[in-house]
Predict the 3D structure of the following.
Amino acid sequence: MNEVALLIAATIASGTPLVLAGLGLLVNEKAGVLNLGAEGMMLVAAIAGFAAAFHSGSEWVAFAAGAGAGMVLAAGFGALAIWLGTNQYATGLALSLFGAGFSAFVGVEYVGKKLAERTSFEIPFLADIPFFGPALFRQHPMAYVAVLVAIGLAWFLYRSRSGLALRAIGESPDSAHSLGYPVRWIRLAAVLAGGALCGVAGAFLSVAYAPLWVEGLVAGRGWIALALTPFATWRPARVLLGAYLFGGVTMLQFHLQGAGVQIASQFLSMLPYLATIAVLTLISRNPAWIRINMPASLGKPFHPSA
Amino acid sequence: MSSPGKRVWLKVAAVAAVAVLAACGKEEPPPPKAAAPAPEAKAPAPPAEPFKAAWMYVGPVGDAGWTFAHDQGRKSVEAEFGTKVQTTFVEKVPEGADAERVIRDLAAQGNKIIFATSFGFMEAMLKVAGEFPEVKFEHATGYKTAANMRIYDAKFYEDAYLAGVIAGAMSKTGTLGFVGSFPIPEVLRNINAFTLGAQTFNPKIRTRVVWINTWFDPPKESEAAQSLINGGADVLLQNTDSTAVLQTAEKNGKLAFGWDSDMSAFAPKAHLASAIVDWSNYYKRAVRDAMEGTWKTERTVWGVKEGQNDLIKIADRVPENAKQKVAEIKAAMKAGAFEVFTGPVVDNAGKERLAKDVKAEQDWKDKVDFYVRGVEGKIPAAK
């Protein structure tokens, strides 16, 4: 029983960066902008966060630095993709490649450095409940922040006026434009918010999860976060679920091995990615699911004059 | 549609992109010393040109583990020979098509001896060795040789055995955890030695193994360590290259060892001892052999006896009897009187692999493909 509780706890920890990055990309995409640069933003944010934590000793400064780094890169992407109308796919890919190289370059002297000792976290009282305590209430605070962001985002997108405007821009920027909404500025705001969330996710990896810096630390989690949005048919609650599912499969493969289950470890390493393909296949069996939820103008540039 | 203004912008963006790419290109870590050929070469009456030696690493020199240890060895060569030898290194070379290109480059640059420090470089090195008969090639942890290529290795399992002795004395749950990279004889030997060592103090001890199929991926290493801890393991050892396993143990209030280099600073509470490897004696000898023309193809496997392996920085919390036992065994190893794999060695299916009182030969150790009794589970992909 205790082992199951610990597996749940590990799943949540492993899913948290995916929740944050996935939600960030969801905001982007709801406004009609596809940013394939998630991996690059997370990498640069990871080293920015690590460096900030190393010099300041504070995790929260590190998360702020990560968010800032993510936003700077996102702003560059936004300027190119929103104002200059560059191809969003190509620009995003370039951002990912740039982020990978740049983070490795600036991070050289932080390889093998150690952060100040961290305290463990538990929510008083709740953490002592049998089973649920160790499973749910001894997480890093950021795990709870991620859940709150998901709830807040669901409320924002579907219950607030500005959320409606954001979604409208993702569906039909021309209509929103004719109603007088500043389409480009709102898209930029969405891209910046996405960059900030990806940044926090990257900083979480290097400061709280690993916690150390090496080149390529993010190891493909940005791409998994990108797969999460169609996986979740662009719904915040489902992003949350999907992220934990991915985290769960990742952790389960190690737990099965540790428990002596006789499956080739190479096969288990493949599982998270197999799950992605399986779910994407299932979703696309019903085109209506996608059509209803996918922003109609996703990936298309907008020109006010057109 | 495309106004001139937009075109200008596109050009600016393109130029900027090229500039960024160019800048990225410069970031590729060329070993600073490699690029500069000795400028005195053309001067009249030049001093004797330094003997050039090169190292090719699989990881970054800052990994605090495997590659770091090799680089310490390279530095010891510099310290020993001074200006007579010029050393170069290339780090983070993937075990694949690039390896061959890098080795060939190093040979073409005039290096007289080249060390490749990962198992996966073997075939690439063998191929290039055939093209440069006058260059000496040295491959760590492999098994193939040529007229101008020889191999060297260390007895990591002696470290693992000593760590096991401490683990057996420290474990309260009776379950040890091992984070494995790839199921190759080298790693299997370490798992087995760790378990055999632990049985000195606790014959009933169990070792659980989690394979991650990589040498270096800190998040993965810590996830694997976490799953072992969740499964009840309270002392961990790893055959991977970062400090992640040790740090995960620290976070969970469990115990672990440093591997490949002194990692005591990374986890003051969890750290029990560090298994280290010191390549400097071998590297100094190999370079001297090549300089003096005494180099010949052979296989060198050194361990605690030759000062190549050691278990250091044993924590104060380790009980006195365990410390004593480690000291005794280490002394016996130094005297050449102790062999980790001495029969009877029984695998975890109950089959005898080494008869009573027989000391394992090198050939036996090269072919280890089983877990000893006490290790749980089956080796992946093993039939």
Summary: Chain A has a mean pLDDT of 88. The radius of gyration of chain A is 19 Å. The longest helix of chain A spans residues 2-30. Residues 231 and 240 of chain A are 11 Å apart (CA to CA).
